[in-house]
Design goal:
185 residues, mainly alpha, three-stranded antiparallel β-sheet
């Protein structure tokens, strides 16, 4: 959320027509949703997450190296919003696949609370002289990326289904190894 608010503040400070800059931001958000769907259909969750992180890192590096170039700023904002929107979508899937089912709601709530709470710092960080806000965002994204490397394998906590007879299946909880019969109709 901190990065998203900072992206909005970056768009507000971009040179040119504010209306067109807002349309650019909205278009980039739409593209981010479609692009994250494209990635998730072709790659597993962590590979898509790494691709999105790389796109974000490129956008922050562009903003650090070319802070006053209007064309590069537009490109960087499109990439940054693509990263942030994709990161948001893909993180939901990562939580679903890698967190035990009885903790998914708590983890999702904690992530949202931390994200929204961190948005309070965005105006202060954005007020720093360029390129410090983008260096801070790059460091924050890198910390999130490093933390993602310590997640368990996908499906570790999901129950397994085993076929027991012609039309019967059992659902086996990996944590307790207790079978639950499921009848196929």
């Amino acid at each position: 959320m901190l990065q998203y608010v900072m992206a909005n503040l970056t768009v507000a400070l971009m040179p040119g027509n504010k209306f067109l800059n807002g349309i650019l931001l909205g278009s980039a958000e739409c593209f981010a949703m479609v692009f994250s769907r494209f990635l998730l259909k072709r790659f597993d969750d962590m590979k898509a997450f790494k691709i999105i992180y790389a796109i974000g890192a490129i956008s922050y590096l562009i903003l650090v190296m070319f802070p006053s170039s209007p064309r590069m700023t537009y490109l960087a904002v499109i990439l940054m919003v693509t990263c942030i929107g994709g990161w948001d979508n893909i993180s939901l899937l990562i939580v679903e696949l890698r967190v035990p089912p009885n903790n998914v709601a708590a983890v999702s709530l904690m992530l949202r609370t931390v994200a929204v709470s961190s948005g309070i710092l965005a105006p202060t960080i954005s007020a720093l002289p360029p390129p410090l806000p983008y260096i801070f965002s790059l460091c924050l994204a890198t910390a999130g990326f490093i933390a993602s490397l310590y997640l368990p394998k996908a499906g570790t906590h999901l129950p397994a289904v085993e076929k027991t007879a012609d039309d019967n299946f059992k659902l086996v909880d990996k944590d307790t190894e207790e079978p639950t019969p499921i009848h196929n109709r």
